C-alpha cells in the first residue's frame, strides 16, 4: 500500500484488489479439489490473500477520506465493526453449510459398514486418513469433501459479486488535496496541496495582524 503515498489515490488499488480477490476465488473453485496439486492449491490461497490485503486498507482509506476530521475515528470504528460482524456471519454460514453437507454426503457415499464412523470422520482429519487410498471409504470421503468445498466456493463467488460495482461507486478522492477543515498543522498533510498553501497564507496574515495589534496596544 506504499504506492498510495505517491499516487494519493486509493480507488485504483481497491478495484485491483477486488479483481485479484475474485480471480483467486474463481481459481479456488477450479483447483480446490483432490485432482489438483499442492502447488495449485497453495497458489490460489496466495492470490486470495494478496487480493484481500489490497482491498482492506484502501476501503478503510476511502471511508476515512469521505468523513470530516472529527468523524474519522467514529467512521473507522464503524467500518471495523461491520468487517468483524461480516466475518462472524460468514463463519457461521460457512460452518453451517459445511457441517450439514459433509455429513449428508458422507452418509450418501460411504459403504454401509462405514456409515457409523461419520462423526469421527467429520471431527478428525487424522481419523479420515486411516482409511487407505483407493478403498471405497477413502474415495467416498474425498468425494464428499470435494463437493462440500465446491458448494462453499460457489456461495463465496456470489457473495463477492457486489463488491466490484459497490467499489466503482465510491468517490476517487485525491488524498493529499482533501480539505480537512481543521485549524492548525495537520500531521501528514502534503505541503504541495492548495489547502496547505492557503492555510500557510492565513497563518502569515494572522501573524502580521497580531504584530500590528500588539504594536498598537503598546503605543497606547
From TrEMBL:
The keyword Transmembrane applies. It comes from the Eukaryota. SUPFAM superfamilies: MFS general substrate transporter. Keywords: Membrane, Transmembrane, Transmembrane helix. The keyword Transmembrane applies. The chain crosses the membrane at residues 12-29, 41-63, 75-100, 151-170. It is a multi-pass membrane protein. It is found in: Membrane. Residues 192-220 are annotated as: Disordered. Its main location: membrane. Gene3D superfamilies: MFS general substrate transporter like domains. This is Siderophore iron transporter mirC. The lineage of its organism: Eukaryota, Fungi, Dikarya, Ascomycota, Pezizomycotina.
Amino acid at each position: 500500500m506504499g504506492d498510495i503515498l505517491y499516487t494519493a489515490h486509493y480507488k485504483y488499488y481497491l478495484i485491483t484488489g477486488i479483481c485479484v480477490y475474485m480471480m483467486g476465488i474463481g481459481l479456488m473453485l477450479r483447483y480446490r479439489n483432490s485432482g489438483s496439486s499442492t502447488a495449485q492449491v497453495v497458489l490460489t490461497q496466495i492470490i486470495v490473500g494478496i487480493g484481500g490485503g489490497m482491498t482492506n486498507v484502501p476501503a478503510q482509506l476511502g471511508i476515512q477520506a469521505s468523513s470530516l476530521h472529527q468523524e474519522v475515528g467514529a467512521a473507522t470504528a464503524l467500518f471495523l465493526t461491520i468487517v468483524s460482524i461480516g466475518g462472524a456471519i460468514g463463519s457461521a454460514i460457512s460452518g453451517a453449510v459445511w457441517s450439514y453437507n459433509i455429513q449428508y454426503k458422507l452418509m450418501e457415499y460411504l459403504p454401509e459398514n462405514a456409515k457409523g464412523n461419520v462423526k469421527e470422520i467429520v471431527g478428525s482429519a487424522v481419523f479420515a486418513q486411516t482409511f487407505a487410498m483407493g478403498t471405497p471409504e477413502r474415495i467416498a470421503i474425498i468425494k464428499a469433501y470435494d463437493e462440500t468445498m465446491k458448494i462453499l466456493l460457489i456461495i463465496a463467488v456470489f457473495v463477492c459479486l457486489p463488491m466490484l460495482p459497490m467499489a466503482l461507486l465510491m468517490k476517487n478522492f485525491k488524498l493529499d488535496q482533501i480539505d480537512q477543515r481543521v485549524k492548525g498543522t495537520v500531521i501528514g498533510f502534503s505541503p504541495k496541496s492548495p489547502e496547505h498553501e492557503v492555510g500557510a497564507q492565513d497563518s502569515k496574515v494572522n501573524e502580521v495582524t497580531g504584530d500590528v495589534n500588539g504594536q498598537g496596544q503598546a503605543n497606547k
